[in-house]
Amino acid sequence: MAGPISQSSVTLSEPVKNSHFAFAAMTTLFFIWGFITALNDILIPHLKAAFDLNYTQAMLVQFCFFGAYFIISPFAGKLIEKIGYIRGIITGLVTIAIGCGLFYPAAEVEVYAVFLLGLFILASGVTILQVSANPYVAVLGPEKTATSRLSLAQAINSVGHTLGPMFGAALIFAAVGVASEDADIDAKAVQLPYLLLAGVMIATAIGFKFLKLPTIKADETEQDVKSTDSIWSHKALIFGTVAIFFYVGAEVSIGSFLVNYFSQPEIAGLNERQASQMVSYYWGAAMIGRFVGAALTRIIAPIYVLAFNSAIAIILLFTTMNTQGDLAMWSVISIGFFNSIMFPTIFTLAIRGLGPLTGRGSGLLCQAIVGGAILPLMQGYVADVTSVQFSFIVPVAAYVYIAWYALFGSKVKSANSAAPAPAAN
Questions:
Q1: DSSP 140
Q2: N or C: which end of the chain has fewer CB within 10 A?
Q3: Domains of the chain: which residue ranges?
Q4: Domain covering 19-210, topology
Q5: What's the pLDDT tens digit per position in 16-61?
Q6: Is the separation of the CB atoms in 416 and 228 below 8 Å?
Q7: What is d(CA 244, CA 172) in angstroms, rounded to the nearest whole number?
Q8: What is the pTM of this model?
């Protein structure tokens, strides 16, 4: 595909040979935010039981977490322009630590709203990491392999997603007991896991402070030439922003309901701890798919892989909505595999050719991650008024749009361009 960042306008301050070490360092960040984000899938049923919430109320966890992307992303993009990508990463890690630390007093006072505040702060740090790390990884190598490189980084992100639910199931549900009805004990069970995470974030921030990583810089001449350009004139970016909204919303919404879905007698009849462990298979499938996708998108046009995966996800959702038992359970888990390449493919298709506007384009795309706040609320409402099983109709609509973007929306020419953007190849 055409690269997301024009290398005539954005370069590395160090020779390309150092980019391998930089890429390895960046993958730790992808792991971190994957691990933390997946913990929400365990936190939701835990807090739902502790505070006696309905599905819509429980989905406020995702609303506050992913709502931070919408509010913070524009500021994060401007922050990165001022302080640089590496300092932005350190800032993000420290912010995550503050959010994790707030879980301790939240559990002490047993107020759901304080948990939500902590999640918002935590997610603000993750947002800064995303705005910093995604374009950084995209530029660390040849333009034609940007999707493959970002897919590989996202595969490491999926390792974190896979291990996160295991960590939560072991430390949270094990601490309170599967059948515990004591809300006080339930609330305090999150204190140790999130204090541990805060400590890891501080240690990682210190590590990045002393690492010698190449910095990304834009060519000043190119910046001057495009100073009057606007991200709003790039239609593929705008349509891609909507695609990111729906993709993240669908992926998060599905993962958020798995514990409660697998607990239903007609589906799997698992207890919460067992169901929490099964969530790891959903994210593990995405991990495998991203390793496969990193290789596959080198030989097949990413737009066709994206369209195919969207179609299969739709089929699997209709399957789980109309079956029971193992077939219903494993069909929804399998969607994780086909989610795998969606984010990096949409992201790189959307920001290709932006040059000096890449930072702002990345910020807009990360802002669209607010889909993870909106779609779970929508699915929660549908689940409250109908059933959890039927509520999967919400992500179906999301994948329909993604398929359209892959085949049509990603090819729409920019307002200031005489010809369509080149198709991925």
A1: S
A2: C
A3: 19-210, 232-408
A4: Growth Hormone; Chain: A; (1.20.1250)
A5: 455 677 788 888 899 998 899 888 888 888 888 888 889 999 999 9
A6: no
A7: 31
A8: 0.78
